[in-house]
Amino acid sequence: MIDRIDRRILSILQEDCTVPVAEIGRRVGLSTTPCWRRIQKMEEEGVITGRVAILDPKKVNAKVTAFVSITTNQHSEDWLKKFADVIREFPEVVEFYRMAGQVDYLLRVAVPDIEAYDSFYKRLIAKIDIGDVSTTFAMEQIKNTSALPLQYVAAEKPRAEER
Amino acid sequence: MIDRIDRRILSILQEDCTVPVAEIGRRVGLSTTPCWRRIQKMEEEGVITGRVAILDPKKVNAKVTAFVSITTNQHSEDWLKKFADVIREFPEVVEFYRMAGQVDYLLRVAVPDIEAYDSFYKRLIAKIDIGDVSTTFAMEQIKNTSALPLQYVAAEKPRAEER
DNA sequence: TGCGGATGGGAAAAATTTTCTCTATCATGC
DNA sequence: GCATGATAGAGAAAATTTTTCCCATCCGCA
């Protein structure tokens, strides 16, 4: 189980995973070793799935975000598998959801500009037959974080009477 | 400028930033020092904005994704500032865009379940008067990566005749 | 009372990052 | 053609950090 201290460790690591373990320990009131062991455990359990570098979209020329809503009449397992495989080939697609409601699928696409989006779109529809597509562009990214909320993590270690 | 080697370094670091510099150097055909210096430079220039731990949404009980489309008649600078400040207080909101088109703002919200979304929604509208709100839920996250596409990064070092 | 499991701590070993010094290459000006 | 300075690469050493090892403490329970 994840306790209060683990949660604080996760909070630190979600913001900046270059902080030395000794410093994390200091902040959460532990020495290096137990702090290190907690981090190890959370990696083994899959709570922490990895550590990655975050890039500036402007600096890598991918500052335009497009949301692509897809409504299709194709609903077979096979078609979805094919679709998912095609999408995975496009690094421009950074998020891909199957939706409830009117829209069947939603993509978030990162490109330099509208022209590049159009080129992406043509390459996409050349690869697979999708249905109705509707695209909207973001003017401004006001917040975009990889940090998930931690207030919902499963409660403290269950006490004896709860087991 | 970012050259071919820098791009390969970024590609590695976007997937996994725990790879030792010596190993990155080996993969891109450089020794440790020049590879380290390239990474340093990209951090100083702000190409790399940070390194973070990625958590498993299931394991931290935030596996439900809701997209919230907001249409408002409030368009003043002040209102947006207030709105942005309110949003930043909610760790459930992981993405926040100002949009072109019909919808004015789009939020992506991470919560454990529909009930938690409803609670979030009530807390949000208690804090600020927003206009029309429409929420759709994702059934499945097929792809979600922090890695931006790198094929658009500004061209190779300009050669003499191009300057 | 004593045992086993879980958790914390200090110190040492191992690995990695960071610095320092030295070369090679190349475009440029003389 | 040849010095010169800027740019980029390399190896070795120093500094820092991670990782391991061994031991102490606490707690529930038989």
TrEMBL record, chains A, B:
Gene Ontology biological-process entries: regulation of DNA-templated transcription; response to amino acid
Official protein name in the record: Transcriptional regulator, AsnC family
GO molecular function: sequence-specific DNA binding
Record domain HTH asnC-type: where: 2-63
GO CC term (a single one): cytosol
Keywords per UniProt: DNA-binding, Transcription, Transcription regulation
SUPFAM superfamilies for the chain: Dimeric alpha+beta barrel, Winged helix' DNA-binding domain
Top-level taxonomic group: Bacteria
Pfam families recorded: AsnC_trans_reg, HTH_AsnC-type
Taxonomic source organism: Roseibium hamelinense
